[in-house]
Design a protein that fits this description.
Strand content: 5-15%
Strand order of the largest sheet: 1-2-3
Number of domains: 5
Distance between the termini: 128 Å
Structural class: mainly alpha
CATH superfamily of the largest domain: Intergrase catalytic core
């Protein structure tokens, strides 16, 4: 054997002796942890352990604090985050979700995703379940994919590459001050992949011209892109991708799309909304699952967006004080408002029944759940809503008509129901916007025509939610609030409840008269002037007089004769103030009532009593002739007096000048 071979053999033998000596002679390592690199403090790990152990799978850690499970996840070296797990109710579920989050965190670290973006995506994964969870996992995979991470050189970046980097969230991570993460990223990605990318594949974005944009718009299939709004959405996506190429990416000097390129949105289509009697029929129908009836009733009475309502947790709703807090919403404008008493009562019963069957619920449990106990998913809600309406016997043709001028009713149109009936019953724009989140009066004004129609029809208000749903009635299923027979939704041809008119006599609010009594101190009594119009009467208190001028109850008991002159005086003064202030909306609400009071005797019953004027000079007693002469009342073709509002307004303005 040659000398080099002998030298190599000796070296190898020496290494073997050294290795086994380290493996067998270790006085500082206990038998319990001979090869564990995660040995407890004070126990030194064996030097050979790093050669003999496999890389361990990331699992994270869990803890239960404040009634909620949380996962401890490593986002980066020496950086851990606590991720809430609101959908997990057991330790096994928390461990499973924690392992999923730990694996995703490792994947995001390997992809080079920033820790802040990783945390945001992991928090969304931790809070989702079902289809929503699958969508979040798809987003994480897209961000980590090679296609999303590929950064082309400025000279060769294509339109598709820039679009993918935008919809994947990469540009939001790289340029957080200029690019924000969109909630509709998935929808934008689908539209780009369907209508845009096939026509511009491989085209450098620096070479994209107006002709390319027009080619894309001409190629939109009319059988799939049926509305001007969808065409406008595609054009907006083109404009946004090109704008990002200008800044912050600086891949081209200017946007090639001129200001007039964007398609016009087109005339607004007529939208459907639900009448109060249809709402009662829907909420009382056993053919519709209870969770969805409660969800529809909440939307009709409170007016939030469907996604906002579906995302509510128990911690967001204070059923003891009757307040809902909505911090996360479409407009990033946190808001809170007082729930109507009927909604509060229904939610209390709903939560109590869930706790009876499932035990105590954590504060982060969803407020609205389906029959399986999972958070309600409003996806494809329009089709489901129409199916539920038909199942409940609501078959008004215009709700299901779809044409160039009208949209069939959608789940989003529950907001139209709320706004229309709120305005029809005297609520202000501010009161409505506090609940709907509208930031512009223009959006609310779109519902005023329908609101005037609702007021003229005397459709009334929505029933209390805890009464409209039989299973949630205070007296039990099939019983009313006092334990008596439950209310039955009015059938076809039946007269709906009367509507309250007039601000001085008490502003109406969505809900039953009893609901408004709880909120604004008015009695639930409504005595109709005719089958469609009624007046809400303030609760009797000192200062209320009967028709003879005596205090309430001192001369004629508790059922005085109708004080026609006092009501005429009261409404006359209110009409004068409305005309003096150019408030024609209020005047239009008061004028029909005045005309009705001046109709021939016996034409309609009158309400019981109203508060006496504080001084005779403020609202003197007026007879019909004097009122007609002062307020320009003429006879209509049917013989009923008519108030000429415009003439009266001009007369009063001329008097002031």
């Amino acid at each position: 054997m040659s000398r080099p071979a002998l030298r190599a053999l000796a070296t190898f033998a020496g290494l073997l002796v050294l290795f086994f000596s380290l493996a067998l002679v270790t006085p500082s390592v206990t038998a319990e942890h001979p090869l564990d690199p995660r040995a407890p403090r004070g126990v030194e790990a064996h030097p050979a352990a790093r050669f003999l152990t496999m890389p361990r799978k990331p699992t994270g850690s869990i803890e239960h604090r404040g009634g909620q499970w949380r996962a401890g996840i490593t986002l980066a070296p020496k950086l851990r985050a606590r991720i809430a797990l609101p959908t997990c109710t057991t330790e096994a579920q928390a461990l499973e979700r924690c392992a999923l989050l730990a694996g995703l965190a490792a994947k995001l670290r390997a992809a080079g995703v920033a820790a802040d973006l990783s945390r945001t995506m992991l928090e969304r994964v931790g809070a989702r379940d079902g289809k929503a969870l699958a969508a979040e996992l798809a987003a994480v995979n897209l961000v980590c994919s090679d296609k999303a991470r590929r950064i082309a050189s400025p000279a060769g970046a294509t339109f598709e590459e820039v679009g993918v980097r935008w919809t994947s969230g990469e540009l939001a991570r790289l340029y957080p001050d200029q690019v924000k993460v969109k909630r509709t990223n998935e929808r934008d990605r689908q539209r780009l992949e369907t209508y845009v990318y096939p026509l511009v594949r491989g085209l450098p974005i620096a070479s994209f011209a107006l002709d390319d944009a027009e080619r894309i718009m001409r190629a939109l299939p009319p059988e799939r892109v049926r509305t001007p709004a969808t065409r406008r959405h595609v054009a907006q996506l083109l404009h946004r991708v090109l704008a990002l190429a200008v800044f912050p990416l600086r891949l081209r000097e200017a946007n090639p799309l001129p200001p007039g390129f964007m398609p016009k949105p087109g005339p607004p289509k007529a939208k459907g909304w639900i009448y109060p009697d249809e709402d009662r029929r829907l909420l009382a129908s056993p053919a519709v699952p209870l969770p969805w009836r409660l969800f529809y009733g909440f939307l009709h009475r409170e007016g939030p967006r469907t996604g906002e309502a579906a995302a509510l947790d128990l911690v967001d709703v204070d059923v003891r004080r009757g307040v809902v807090t909505l911090d996360t919403n479409k407009t990033d404008d946190p808001r809170a408002w007082a729930l109507s008493p009927g909604v509060v009562a229904a939610l209390r019963t709903w939560i109590a029944r869930r706790e009876e069957s499932r035990g105590a619920l954590p504060p982060t449990a969803p407020l609205f759940v389906d029959t399986d106990g999972e958070r309600l998913d409003p996806s494809f809600g329009a089709d489901r809503f129409r199916e539920h309406l038909r199942a409940a016997g609501v078959d008004r043709a215009e709700l299901f008509e779809r044409s160039k001028a009208r949209m069939h009713i959608r789940l989003h149109d529950t907001r139209a129901t709320f706004v229309t009936l709120a305005l029809a019953n005297g609520r202000t724009e501010t009161w409505v916007a506090d609940r709907t989140g509208h930031r512009s009066s223009d959006m609310i004004n779109r519902y005023r025509r329908a609101a005037r129609t609702a007021a003229e029809l005397g459709l009334g208000e929505l029933a209390r939610l805890d009464v409209a749903i039989p299973e949630l009635r205070p007296g039990g299923e099939g019983e009313g609030p006092d334990g008596g027979p439950g209310e039955v939704p009015p059938g076809p041809g039946e007269v709906p409840p009367p509507v309250a008119i007039g601000r001085e006599l008490g502003s109406a609010s969505p809900g039953t008269p009893g609901e408004s009594a709880d909120r604004d101190g008015l009695t639930p009594l409504v005595r109709p002037l005719n089958p469609l119009i009624g007046v809400r009467i303030p609760a009797p208190e000192p200062g209320v007089f009967d028709s003879a001028g005596h205090p309430w109850g001192t001369s004629r008991g508790t059922s005085p004769a109708p004080p026609r002159s006092a009501i005429l005086a009261h409404l006359s003064a209110a009409l004068g103030l409305a005309l003096a202030g150019d408030d024609l909306e209020a005047a239009r609400g008061l004028a029909p009532l005045l005309a009705l009071l001046l109709a021939p005797a016996g034409a309609a019953p009158l309400p019981a009593v109203t508060r006496a004027p504080s001084s005779p000079s403020m609202a003197p007693t007026l007879d019909g002739g004097r009122l007609a002469a002062e307020h320009h009342l003429d006879a209509s073709p049917e013989g009923a007096p008519v108030v000429h509002l415009e003439a009266e307004r001009r007369r009063r303005k001329g008097g002031r000048s």
